[in-house]
Amino acid sequence: MEILFWVSVAISLGLAYYAYRQVEKTKTLSQGIQSRDEVIKKLRSQMNVIERESVESKALFSTISNVSFDVVFLLDEELTIIMHNRSADTLFGDKNPIGEKLDAVIESPDLLNIVQYALTEEDSLEEQFIIDDSFYRAKTQVMNYDGDRRFVGVAMQDITRLVQLNRARRDLVANISHELRTPITRIRLIIEGLFLDDDKPKRKASIQSLKEIAMETDTLLWLAQELFDLSMIESGQAIMKLVKTPLKQVVDDAIERLETQAEVKDLTIVSHVPDKYEVLCDADQLKRVLGNLIHNAVKWSPENEAITISASEGDDEITVSVFDNGPGVPDDLRERIFERFYQVDASRSGHEGTGLGLAICKHIIAAHGGRIWAEGNSQGKGGRFLFTVYKGDANFDVPIVDMNDDSEEEELTSDQTLTAL
Fold first, then answer.
1. CA torsion angle for 330, 335, 339, 341 (degrees, to 10)?
2. Is the CB of residue 78 less than 8 Å from the CB of residue 100?
3. What distance in Å separates the CA atoms of residue 291 and residue 258, rounded to the nearest whole number?
4. Taking the complete model, does pTM exceed 0.85, yes or no?
5. CA-to-CA distance for 248 and 259, rounded, in angstroms?
6. Is 55 exposed, middle or buried, given 0-12, 13-18 or 19+ CB atoms closer than 10 A?
7. Of the residues 50, 108, 362, 386, which has the fewest C-beta atoms closer than 10 A?
8. For residues 106 and 51, which has the higher predicted lDDT (pLDDT)?
9. How far is CA 382 from CA 86, 266, 327, 370, in A?
10. CA distance 238 to 282
């Protein structure tokens, strides 16, 4: 019995020890699980912070880059696009560039070379290049992340309009230099010829020389006026005050200004404008339009020809036309000739003009609420320019001032003045 007792005690102790060991294991396992849960919780918290920072970074990039008109995008070391702003949509088109290689979405070896150079040299770079006939200025910036990852930020600005304006400015300077040099040289030579002691001019020759001086002086004045008008247009200071005016009076005044130039080529300027037509216009500005068109007709007309000015009546408008017997306007240039600084082939025009006259006409007529256009050679022989202005009694929401009224002329208020350009 005693043996059985001790055996029972030994078994009980063994079972108790085993139970104790299991409890200890369970306790250790529970502590391990609790510690793991804390680690997992901490990792999740860190992951949430990283995700939040990533979202904030993306939002910050998107906000900053989207307020810019420039194209902005971000590349990794493999030149894969990972971010871009909305302005970049104009460059990428319908393609979704995210995750694509740069050379797969933009066919520009110059841009690819710029980015590769920036990665190689790890330095910012600014260059100018062309993509699909558009001029861009690009700046790159290499960024290192955690010391082993690099990214390239690219900012691109479309400078096509700026390049075009620079070219136009250069052309303008060249044209003005030529236009000034020619009349000044001629005036100097004519004056020197008039006052040579050994060759005293006869009266008839003197009169002809004075006419030539007057013509060249008119050319200089014309050039100065065009430059002044352009300055007014670009500064927004040209104001139109529309009043009821006899159209024939405006036409006759414009013809009188160009008679001297027309006489040099024995040209006749004929007006078929009825006395009854009255238009709503700024008389000085409308004379400028007619003067430019007549001057253009004089330049292109062959000698001993006629320039015809006529007018026709519509519902609320009067259409004025200026016709000449020159070479006319090619159909494909009907729109372009009204662009600022644009000139027809220099070999045909003799390098005359600055390319501003028709552009100024377009601005002035638009300020009057009218239209101006040229008919191409397919529509008739010779130069054919037409424009419209409102009739004096047209149903138009600008007060009309009758110039024939003996009462004091009413000034238009700022709300009633039509800003031209």
1. 0
2. no
3. 7
4. no
5. 16
6. exposed
7. 50
8. 106
9. 50, 18, 5, 23
10. 11
Tell me how far apart the alpha carbons of residues 386 and 272 are, in angstroms, rounded to a whole number. Answer: 14
Evaluated on CA atoms 293, 296, 300, 306, the torsion sign reads positive
pLDDT in tens, 7-45: 565 666 666 666 667 667 777 777 777 777 777 777 777
Question: Which residue in 353, 335, 252 sits closest to 299, CA to CA?
Answer: 353
Any idea which of 306-315, 370-379, 405-414 has the lowest mean pLDDT?
405-414
Q: Taking the CA of residue 121 as centre, how many other CA atoms within 13 Å lie in the half-sphere pointing to its CB?
A: 11
Alpha carbons 344 and 329: distance in angstroms, whole number: 9
Cα distances (Å, whole numbers) of residue 109 to 213, 357, 385: 57, 42, 46
Structure tokens at 252: 């006759």
Can you name the residues that pair with 152 across neighbouring β-strands? 75, 142
Residue type, position 187, single letter: I
* DSSP class per residue in 235-247: HT--EE--EEEEH
Query: Residue 44 belongs to what H/E stretch?
Result: helix 2-66
Structure tokens at 198: 């050994």
Domains and CATH numbers, the chain: 64-158 (3.30.450.20), 236-419 (3.30.565.10)
Dihedral sign from CA coordinates of 77, 82, 83, 84: positive
pLDDT at residue 273, as a whole number: 94
Nearest to 267 by CA among 349, 118, 154, 383: 383
**What's the pLDDT tens digit per position in 115-134?**
888 888 777 778 888 888 88
CB atoms < 10 A from the CB of 147, how many?
A: 6
Mean pLDDT of 166-183: 70
Residue 216 three-state SS: helix
Residue 307, SS3 per DSSP: strand
Per the document, the length of the chain is 421
- Cα end-to-end span (Å), the chain: 126
According to DSSP, the β-strands at 306-313 and 268-272 are parallel
Residue 403 Cα to chain centre, angstroms: 39
| pLDDT in the model for residue 95 | 76
- Which amino acid is located at 120 in the chain? T
CA 229, distance to chain mean position in Å, is 19
Average pLDDT, the chain: 75
* Torsion, Cα of 11, 12, 16, 17 (10° steps): -30
Question: Helix, strand, or coil here: 164?
Answer: helix
Q: In this predicted structure, what is the pLDDT of residue 418?
A: 34
What three-state secondary structure class fits 346?
helix
